[in-house]
Structure prediction request, 511 residues.
Amino acid sequence: MRVVVDLNRCQGYAQCCYAAPEYFEVRGHEILFYDPAPPEAKRSQIERAQQACPVRAIAVEPAGLAEGDEP
Amino acid sequence: MDEQRPGLVVVGASLAGLRGAEALRDSGYDGPLTLVGDEPHQPYDRPPLSKHVLAGELPPEATALPRLTRLRAQWRLGQPAIALDRERRVLRLADGAALPYEKLLIATGARARPWPGAGADLAGIFTIRTLEDARALRSALARRPSRILIVGAGLIGCEAASCCRDLGLPVTLVDPNPTPLARLLGTVIGATLAERMRVSGVDLRPNTKVEALSGEAGQVRRAHLPGGGVLTADLVIVALGATRDTGWLATAGLVADAGGLTCDAACRAMTTVGAPDPDIYAAGDVARWPNPLTGGRPVTVEHWGNAVDQARHAAANMCAPATGQVAYAHLPSFWSSQFGLNIKLAGLTAGADALAVVQGSRASGRFLAVYGRAGRTVAALSFDQARWLPAYADAVAAGAAFPPILGATDQPRIETREPGFTGPRRSADRAAATPETAHA
Prediction:
């Protein structure tokens, strides 16, 4: 699945890191490192991370959205 | 859908093109939609390329951007647009195809400026702009070069230097200015970053210009400085900024050059006869438009956030009647992570005559500073103080008096000084008459 974080919005609250620690990580004081291509099987975890973000910075491709829409 | 209609065409299949195309569907457009891209890849995210992809933490293809709306689009990838015929309303692609359009969104972005001096044909010289650039450079870094030379200490050059040090690779960073990021942030803040770089082991060479590259057996080995100095390097990263991708518009009758495609306030492309083309819009790195937040002077904003916001704005205008065109206002913002620091800026520092640290301290490495120009706050900069930034960004957007927000808890004693901009700011392309903007 595909994920992107708007790092202009991100304030380093790290709530995503609690929800999906394998895929979101804060480095130093406030640098977010995340996996933009986590496994589809982890979707529920990733969506929890998305919902936990207090500044709504995480965008997640809905399941099945791109089917039939690929180049 | 009426497949007989030419429909809407988006030229450029990166962040702005993708978000613009999605916004056309979100605005209710149900007709044919075509996306044209010069690269063979589906839309991907560029910021990780100069960071985690170089560091080997992410494979290049992991950067594919999420789709947020079903596009139902025709894709023409790996096919650069080579010409635009506005009279016939046809776009010409490199494979010879003629693609008719009803309305066009131009989001062709920019390309890395290649090494302009002698030695450009040597192996071992890289730029960082595309996925393939990053893939090639990553492979070369994995072979552990003995000394890397980075030419240009702007954002990309600094991020690349940070990656090289994280990988334990020796790196020399050369820039003609007195500090890194000098043109963007001034030499006062630049000196703070320079100190951090030196602690991290970067061989930083400010006030230094590379004149030529030379090599052996076709492989780069040396950089030549004015006066006969030589730096050795077996890998060179050229980080000299970008030129906007407007060459394909040369005969289109639009106001376009290497500095961008000029638009009106509603993001409609300006024609050489002085009126906007009502059916051609532009967004992202390529678009030069009169931003009301910067005094209405035409500017391009080559940042991620503008690609998203301007593409969505332009798409909404494309779907609106001529009488319903809305002007686009945007507060430029960017982030950069390097040397363990999160650097964020809101606003434009061009022409700033004052700088003050208003939260934290430079000595501690964590601070928020504001830039002023003629008594107004024009930009806010955060070094690891992101949570303070939104309030100061609001002050920038409002054109608040400098310095804004006085009396906040834990605020240091505010001392104002000159930010240390040296000489006239060069536009991103000297050949282009691009005003690098000024606040009102």
Remarks:
- The radius of gyration of chain B is 22 Å.
- Chain B touches chain A through 40 residues (CB under 8 Å).
- The first strand of chain B starts at residue 8 and ends at 11.
- Residues 425-440 of chain B have pLDDT under 50 and may be disordered.
